[in-house]
Amino acid sequence: MDSVDIFNELSELVTVRINSCSEVEHPNSWIERRQYKDYDLWCIQEGQVEIRIQDEVHIASEGDLILLSPKVAYSATTPSDSCIFIFTHFDVSLGDHLSILDNFQLAGILKNELVKEERRLFLDAYDQYKLQMAMSQMRLKGALTILIAKIMEHYGRCHYRGEFIQNASEQKLTKYLDKLQPVFDFAHEHLHQTLTVGELATIAGMSEKYFISYFKQALGVTPGRYIYQLKMNRARDLLYSKQYSVQEIASMLGYPDPYSFSKAFKKYYQVPPSKFVW
């Protein structure tokens, strides 16, 4: 399992928050030197933007996206007569982890062909947002979520790596998720068993107490919540397949009996498994 799959497995716990979104036009005399506290996404509409990270210079053209992270101090200018872009300040959290994206090297320039369709959806949503149409804020948030998901997909498939790195000391990304990779793999392969936190801690080579703290810091959720989420995701898929009885699914997910499984399922989905699929 790739580490970015965490976002898919725990999608119900992922929160995307837009702090501001607007369009701006800059003349050729424009120079900006900043380091933001949140993530910033620029959709280049016209002209070019030159981004300088220390001694490295990067050029984004019309159709490209620029993704800036809180870790990156930059200077920006336009090498053309002027430039127009839409900027979006946003945060992404997973559970209690407010800086989950810092685990990935995302800040950089994304060429239009990588996210062409997702970019179009976002710009359509922005046009509605700009006109203050009904439900336009939800559409904008949804379109941004789709765009971020596409970027993460490209990252997971090694089709994209952000080139904005502040300095050598920050090139070492957070290793929390890498350290937990054996735990993720084991959990996926043994969902048919009753998994204990102590067992997972042993796989990670940590004491149980330290493992719980480490896991929560890495993902923003406890190991128990993570396992519960995996089992409920798998239960949902098995029920949708309509190939197995509730008793069979309970056994396939390591529950001692159908009652225990049904109780856990109802707690999560607010409906018993027998009535989940009509």
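^ that was protein a. below is b, sequence first then the tokens
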Amino acid sequence: MRAITMHEFGGPEVLTVKEVPDPEPRRTEVLLEVTRAGVNYADIHVRSNTYLAPVKLPYIPGNEVVGTTPEGKRVIALTQGGGYAEKVAVRRSLHWEIPDNVSDQEAVPLALQGNTAWHLLFTVGRISEGEKIVIPAAAGGVGSLAVQLAARIGATVIALASTEEKRQLALDLGASAVVDSSSEVDLAERIRDAAGGPVHAALEMVGGSTLHQTVAALAPRGRLAVYGFASGELTNVAVHTLLQNSITMAGFWLPHLYAADRGTLLARSTKGLFAAVSNGSLKVIDGGTYPLADAAKAHRSLTSRSATGKVSLDTSK
């Protein structure tokens, strides 16, 4: 089969298509014929060797796919690598059948980005109707879904985005206000101005100064859910800062839910995501679909911040 295989860490050029043996599924796994592979910022960290978990070379990246089972069922699945390929072995507890009225393009971000947005909001952030929440990268894969999920329960969404086009998209998706995130100068003050005061909760995935600015925008007893450091700048938040306003700060990494309640949490959220797409209350933004061999181009699109919504690979091309 064809697969994108990394033999070294580095830039997009290390992503090369090769013929490799088909994976051999274990007893707890099923072999999928992959039709679409999701491209995520976690894959950028894997490629550059800055991922939360180390990977051993050679390595096939990709953690979410759309594919078909040997019985012909169309499913989405979470993988632990191996997604950028024509076939992948996935755990039986981590794949879910796609409803007939949901397309592959609509389904591809739901396994990883959809579940990440859902659990950031409702499991970690505990967002409820009437609360004000900051959502970064609001036109991106996770952000565009999080904006809609938060708005549909009646939360007031303050969306961060770097261009006028992206900010307009966030408004179209249900954000109540938008803030230019291309500059970190006075970001906390601009968030509070847009929100009409401090916010109850925030998501954060940039790191560096943006993390500190986001904390400063929180109201007393505010909640912060951290799920990345896209800037590459790791930073610390002083305990004194958290104590001053009783701030709750929690990290989130989706793989920690893989074994939770034998996948019950993920099964429940995936069902909710499918229902929202089916009834039209959740719209998937297509950020571009690339042939498998053009994985490097897909990564460049993601890191250049030029893409909005979901970037994916078509394994049939």
